[in-house]
Amino acid sequence: MLLYKILILKQIEFFKIERMVLLVDTGETESVEIEKRAFKLLEEKDADMRTRKYNGPFLLGLTIFLVAWTIFQLYFNTIGVIDAITLRAYHSMFLLLFTFLLYPTYKKEKKIRKAPPIHDMILFSLTIVVFMYMILNYQRIAMTGGLLNKIDVIIAGIGILLVLEAGRRASGNLVILAIVFLLFNFWGKYISGTLGHSGFSIKRVLSHMFWGSQGIFGIGIGVSATYIFLFVLFGSFLKHSGFSQCINDIALTLVGRSPGGPAKVAVLASALLGMMNGSAIANVATTGTITIPLMKRTGYKAEFAGAVEAVASTGGQFAPPIMGAVGFVMAEFLGLDYVQVMIAAFLPAFLYYLGILVSVHLEAKKLGLKGLSKENIPNAVKIMKERGHLIIPLMVLIGMLLLGYTPLFSAAIAIVSTIVASWIRKETRMNFNTIIIATVEGAKGAIGVGVSCILIGLIIGTVSLTGLGLNFGYLILKIVGEGQLFLGGLMVMIMSIILGMGVPGVAAYVIVAAVAVPVLIKVGATPIAAHMFCLIYACLSNITPPVAMSSYVAAGIAKSNQTKTSLIAVKLGITGFILPFFFLNNPILLLGSIENVPFLLILRALITASMGVISLSAGLEGILIKKCSIITRITLIIIGFLTIDPKWQTDILGIILLALIIIFQKKKGQEIE
Description:
Distance between the termini: 66 Å
Strand order of the largest sheet: 1-2
Structural class: mainly alpha
Radius of gyration: 25 Å
Number of strands: 2
Largest sheet: 2 strands, parallel
Number of helices: 31
């Protein structure tokens, strides 16, 4: 019965640290009100929060079904043998089955129920028939070179319709984009010029999208069936082991007593958790219920507090070592070892979060804010004694990757090590119920992103069938010209942000990589720089107006103006918006992405880029050692651009100017007006 009661409610880890709750001092009523508001906002923006809640015997059956799916995925991603297409087909079938069971037909449908409605059981049964037919007949069709009979075509048509219905429920706006691309296969013949094509029959489109390897069973669902599922599951186990509280306590000990300590804690904690769950919106709604009120309580304005949480949660999607599972997808696209991608992502992520921390610190100085008192800071030694062992799974994962084991095997071992590590101390021990809950929550967490990956197959399938990617690249080249890296990057940046709006991080990256990466490579970018460029801008769409979904949720929790919160978030994350243009032009900023680069040159790039980020943040905040005049602020922003650029001439000029400003401000007895 206890397991039933726990599973009925959607599990949300509100990241409640007793010391922080005491500091917020809002009272139980207000805390509950904040959580309800966060839940409502998340439910409005995130389809995963609108899932049905079952009770009675069906709940037990659903739980067993989810656990069985998890075992299936773990087995065939580690020691089991199965061909890629069959694994993708089974994975797609499970995703659709769970979508029809868990996601309501319409938003206002009754959420708590004893069993699914009849029409969803019909869709459930139809899904099994269609996908089992595909699995049983794929080899026959492949052996005949794609020759289809009438039943094959009908099955393909029904399969596409089932995918679109599942996408409508679980992926929101992405299904609209998928339909637009799908219709382009038929209507493209009416478009004149470079982007048009000669047109395709319904049979040809259905064959390519359903029976081919570049449609719904292509790279998108391949990523979901492997990396995404295992790393979402790993994140769920980390969460239920108590890792979240350990991370928050460590953040408190590191930065809690410095000026603006609560905001810095929010930055570090949101970065680490966002890195694992890969969902900026969910991260804002969970950690934000505590961090945003705390920041407001300690003196930050509501808009600033909301922006800090939004921008910190967003960056986790490109922060190593896990990168919300996107890094593994990138490694697959590039044909590189994941460790190379992880190292390349280090400097952009480090500089992004350095910029946020510096801005938070300078804002605290400007407002005269203090850090938390000593009695409210946990003892570091005590933390490591009581919860330090919970970091072992992350160390196991990183260690195995560095030793050359595959990401999938490493993730599976890391999941097991999470359970084993939790048993080291009685207080953190995961019992049978907790393991089942973590498994069920991890499996559920993979459904929404997985359905998005199936829809991506329709988009990528259209790009490959119609030649849209090549044609679009040719069009960009006609507009910007050969070798115009900056102009090409500017157009891709806009496209990446637009395509990434309202789409999960992994899905956004896969879409953008299919369409935009070839464009950047054609105008002169290296492959890894092009992929990292698209990834960062796809992620930053979460804080970019007018959609800015992370900022919207954060503003709702903070009770602040959404537009102002979004604009402040853009200012705080400014490093993320400008750095990609520098590493696009000079990939040395992607550490290790260029062979035979001297270590001292890499070290210089790291130090001077860090100086540039600090200068840029100081210029935008209007304070360095003291408040700055307009001229000083403009100079600091220029210094930022000079020193982020890895050329030695710009570095020297920037360092000289920064040194002069520091000397001038230190000699000034009063603040600069």
